[in-house]
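Issue 218. Parser rejects a valid record. Input:
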Amino acid sequence: MKKEYDIEKLNPRINPYAQKMKQQITINLNCETIDYFKTLSQEFGIGYQTLINLYLADCVKEKRQIKINWS
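Output the parser choked on:
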């Protein structure tokens, strides 16, 4: 390794995965929902958080509208 690097001579590259980056958040879900996705995740062999993310991404892709009925 060099002791010093000339920053201006470095070749800056765009991260090809930047569009696919995830953001960590905190979300409150009820226990039934978490248990449901944990059960599904065991069937598919992937993590439940990954499964929830895939489901939500599909909702975005298909532009699903939520139906809320306050009774």
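Fixed in the parser; the record now loads. The two ends are 67 Å apart (CA to CA).
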